[in-house]
Amino acid sequence: MAALQRKFDDTEARLSGLTLPEGGWSAATRRDALSRVRSMGLPHARDEYWKYTKPATLVQPEAPAAALFAGEETPIFDDVDRLKVVFVDGVFDPEASDALSMSGITIERLADSNADIHWARDLYGKLELAGQSPVERPLAALNTAFATDGVLIHATAKAEKPVNLIYIHNSETSDAILHHCIKLDEGAELTVLENGPAAARFNKVMEVDVADKATFHHIRTQGRDHERRAATNIFGRLGRESIFKSFTLTANGVLTRNECVLELTGDDAVAHVAGACMGDGDFHHDDTVFITHDAVNCESRQVFKKVLRNGATGVFQGKILVKKGAQKTDGYQISQSLLLDEDSQFLAKPELEIYADDVACSHGSTSGAIDEEALFYLRSRGVPQGHAEDLLTLAFLAEAVLEIEDQDLQDAVNGRIEAWLMRRRTA
Amino acid sequence: MLEIKNLHVKLEEEDKQILKGVDLTIEAGKVHAIMGPNGSGKSTLSYVLSGRNGYEVTEGEATLLGQDILELDPEERAAAGLFLAFQYPVEIPGVGNMTFLRTAVNAQRKARGEEEMSSTEFLKVVREKAKELEIGADMLKRPVNVGFSGGEKKRNEILQMAMLEPKLCILDETDSGLDVDAMKLVSDGVNKLRAPDRGFLVITHYQRLLDHITPDVVHIMYDGRIVKTGGPELALEVEKNGYADIMAESA
């Protein structure tokens, strides 16, 4: 009882430091979300869904400080022709951003859209609300209530180029809450790129409504600052023959929890979620995925790979739920870790729950060290040990990285992985 | 070129002596063959020379071109000019064959203080050599040895050998798993590499590989020692009479 009381006390302590934005089309949704947070309570160490990841620092009123990376770094998507939207510690930076206009989409800021009627009213907080069952995601409800900004993108056709959300981290104690809504009309196509450490603590929600025959690609990199913390949620709804593909590269970060909740509601939809992460030392990374099949002949893939060293921890909680009537479902889930030493650990909880009788679902989870046979083979050809280990590590991550369809983006991500490994190469 | 003196080797994990005093000298330009029954220590010799983990040298020495190789890491031995064609080439999913080859070639060049090969030059050379071994573009693009047939794997070993241009080539039962045509391709590949400044050590169970790769010297290994040395006729004798006579002589 005492623990439960503390959960609600901690929740109120967090809420007391936040101000609910008033007015506009989102006001009622925000108030509803706030009452959801109050009734659920924010995550607590005793919660089953937070068994492997301690939520305390994501919940406490003040964001723990996170030192800024001192060196030079070229942002990953700088060579890509894209529309830039820059947030510095969660605050929109108009100087660094491009004009919010591009053919195929309309794009505006959440903080700018205070009219009483807006298309986003039917999306904002709606997929988040649907995603609260059967498992509660209180940090996402908190986000819906208190988000200070974000982008609202309505794609009506094929977007001219990708939208790049860039998150710059400048203040050691920043605590950012951003909420994006992305709506793709029938047949529309859009790629969203995200990169940057964002803030000392970052709470982000992205709701994506993919209509029939629409295609959404999402490539994200989170990294750099070792002490940063993030709790992110993607909520997606997929219509008939639609495609949703998301890839995340994570390097460094004392605590990252990436949740992805997708519902395939139209027949013949395809959903792929992939992640590659690399942790060294004080690193905790949690991928929590929940994919619901509620239509016929849909395909879903979850591919998560983690490279862990010096006591780093990786977590994977992945579920495929196949509802009654979702026949011909093709579900695949793989989560693997490469443990580079004895101190690192990987905690995996793969789940399948199937109520249809004509489906093909497979899942697998493994932890292992570098393959000694392969390592000797490479070394016997003259490749130095450190370099050989890096080649094998890249090869291990490849299945996840190959989920990125665009070759240039794939190369860019591989370049980041190589650089990260190179900085740690011993011999 | 390669000098092995009184080499004693045991397994690290168990207290089992495998090599019990091997003496062997391979001169530049020569092809030496080692034959012997199963368990005589032939493959162990190839692994110890190439630096695989799990073996402990308890006595003796091995030098390549005057350099003590037993103290070197596997990659340093490779850069010094030693190459082992594996009996069972390893599959490496996720690493492209071409990337692997170029990484290896340039790593060795770098270790020797030579200039790295440019991509264009590398491509040109690799295509040429691959063609001779009937290795198509597809095999070069695929991950190292993944999904290769037995013959393709062995041809891929010879391609690596051709690209790396080692001083001493050890072929560990390269004939195992090869049909007649593949045997010819592989042997032609090896014969093309025969050169006055390169030595070969061919380990095999059977005489048939030696029909294609004619050795200068044949050694018979038994119970961790070289018990008999002769010319190519020794291999024919083994083919005809088996190892029994030789084993009886040395027992």
From TrEMBL, chain A:
Ranges where the SUF system FeS cluster assembly SufBD N-terminal domain occurs:
28-162
Which parts of the sequence belong to the SUF system FeS cluster assembly SufBD core domain? 169-396
Any GO BP: iron-sulfur cluster assembly
Q: Write down the SUPFAM superfamilies for this protein, in alphabetical order.
A: Stabilizer of iron transporter SufD
Q: Which family does it belong to?
A: Belongs to the iron-sulfur cluster assembly SufBD family.
Q: What is this protein called?
A: Fe-S cluster assembly protein SufD
- Origin species, per record, is Roseivivax lentus
Q: What is the lineage of its organism?
A: Bacteria, Pseudomonadati, Pseudomonadota, Alphaproteobacteria, Rhodobacterales
From TrEMBL, chain B:
Q: Where are the transmembrane segments?
A: none
Which InterPro entries does UniProt cross-reference here? AAA+_ATPase (IPR003593), ABC_transporter-like_ATP-bd (IPR003439), ABC_transporter-like_CS (IPR017871), FeS-cluster_ATPase_SufC (IPR010230), P-loop_NTPase (IPR027417)
**A GO term, aspect molecular function:** ATP binding
ABC transporter domain residues: 2-248
The organism named in the record is Roseivivax lentus
For this UniProt record, give its keywords in alphabetical order, as a comma-separated list: ATP-binding, Nucleotide-binding
Q: Which SUPFAM superfamilies does the UniProt record give?
A: P-loop containing nucleoside triphosphate hydrolases
Please state what the protein is called. Fe-S cluster assembly ATP-binding protein
Concerning its family, UniProt says: Belongs to the ABC transporter superfamily. Ycf16 family.
